[in-house]
Structure formats: structure tokens, C-alpha cells
Amino acid sequence: MKNDRLFEMMYLLLQKQGMTAPELAKKLEVSVRTVYR
């Protein structure tokens, strides 16, 4: 499941460069801290 989240994060970043950690956290339904890890 962790790998799925990582691939989804990479896909989101490739689609929209300049996405912030809070934006990613909201899209992935995780905490901002998880995004930074």
C-alpha cells in the first residue's frame, strides 16, 4: 500500500509541477508529515 501511495504521489507531481505538501496530503488523504517522510 505504501508503494501505491508513492507512485500516486509521483504521478501527481508529474501532472502538476509545483504542488505543495499540503496539496499532496489532501489529495492522498494523508498527513503533511507523511508527505515529507
Provide a quick synopsis of the model.
This protein has 37 residues and is mainly α.
3D structure, described in words:
It is a single chain. The chain has 37 residues and is mainly alpha-helical. The chain has one domain (2-36). 73% of the residues lie in helices and 0% in strands. It contains 3 helices and no strands. The chain is globular.
Core attributes:
37 residues; mainly alpha; 73% helix; globular
List the helices and strands and how they pair.
Elements: H1 2-15, H2 21-28, H3 32-36
Provide a count of the helices. 3
Low-confidence stretches are: none
Sketch the major β-sheet. none
Q: What general form does the structure show?
A: globular
β-strand amount? under 5%
What is the string of helix and strand elements? HHH
Determine the fraction of residues in helical runs and give it as a percent range.
over 70%
Would you tell me the overall average pLDDT? 86
How far the N terminus sits from the C terminus, by CA atoms, comes to 15 Å
Structural class by helix and strand composition: mainly alpha
